[in-house]
Structure formats: structure tokens, C-alpha cells
Amino acid sequence: MSTTMATVPVPHAAVLDDAVAAKIRASFDKQGVMTHWGAQLTHLADGFCEISLPFYDKVNQQLGYFHGGVIGAIADSAGGYAGYTRISPDQELVTAEYKLNILAPGKGDTLVGRGQVVKSGRTLIVATAELFAVDHGKWTLCALMQQTLFVLAPGSATAAGTAR
To answer: Residue 131: beta bridge partners?
Structure first.
């Protein structure tokens, strides 16, 4: 597969139940870093999530590309929300670990992260994400991520700073 493409089609996946999609979108909207940066959840399907982020001067590194930490955060969220499509409505999940390979500079007007579930189990979900720098319609694969997500038991998740 070439790392530079004119466009990259969204994989075909089963459509999500409206209630599941609404829960995921509400969760995404609570993520301070994603909303602060202006990231958008652009596509959801069973086992799949796409997030896009427009380029601006607060998400760059010293050479003017998307910062590696920003690429990692978009990858983590794309894989994580792909995982959310596979858990029950009363469950939550958190990232246990991820590995990011940056393959090319994140140079473009938009960063697109596409997360996909590889395997979902009762307590662990393995996901991957492809990150594309889109520059005037030209898509360049700039990073790959592999991740393990931990499924939390119903009622075990609490917001930071609250008592259990």
C-alpha cells in the first residue's frame, strides 16, 4: 500500500444503534483536550471511529508539522472510541497502553485518525489506528498506532476528583 493517496475510503462497517452513537458522541464532547483543540468525531460505525483535527498554530511542533503528542492523542481517541462501539451501554473503558509509529511528517491542513477494533473481549479490546495528514486533498499516512483498552465493570468508573 502506498503511503500517499488522493483519498482514503472509510471501511464498510455495520451502522451503530442511535443510542450507542449518542453515548459515544456525548463522551467525546466531555474530553477537554479534544474540544480544546477543536477535534471532531466525523464517523462512527461498529468497530470504527474517525476523528479529524484542523491544523493551526497551537497543535504544531517547531518545524510547523502536527506535534507528535497531538498525533498520539488523536490516535488514542480514535482507537478508544472504536472500542466504545463494542461495549455495553453501562460500561466504560480506558487505555491500558498504546504504541505509536510516526512514519512521515504530519504536514497538512487536517489530521485524520481512523481507529478500528482488531479483537474485542470481555475485559480487553485491541485496536489500531491509522493517522493521515491531509494536505490540499492529498492523504499521506503519517502514523500507525496499536492499543490495548481495558473494559471497566459497570459502576466502577468515576470522574476524577470524586469519591468512589
So the answer is: 113, 143
**Alpha-carbon 124 to chain mean position:** 17
The highest-level CATH class for domain 15-152 is: alpha beta
pLDDT tens per residue across span 29-83: 999 999 999 999 999 999 999 999 999 999 999 999 999 999 999 999 999 999 9
E-state strands within 38-91: 40-45, 48-54
Q: Hey, what amino acid is at 29?
A: D
pTM of the model: 0.89
Residue 57 exposure: Cα atoms within 13 Å on the Cβ side: 0
Share of the chain above pLDDT 70, in %: 88
CA pair distance 2, 20, nearest whole angstrom: 34
Domain borders along the chain are 15-152
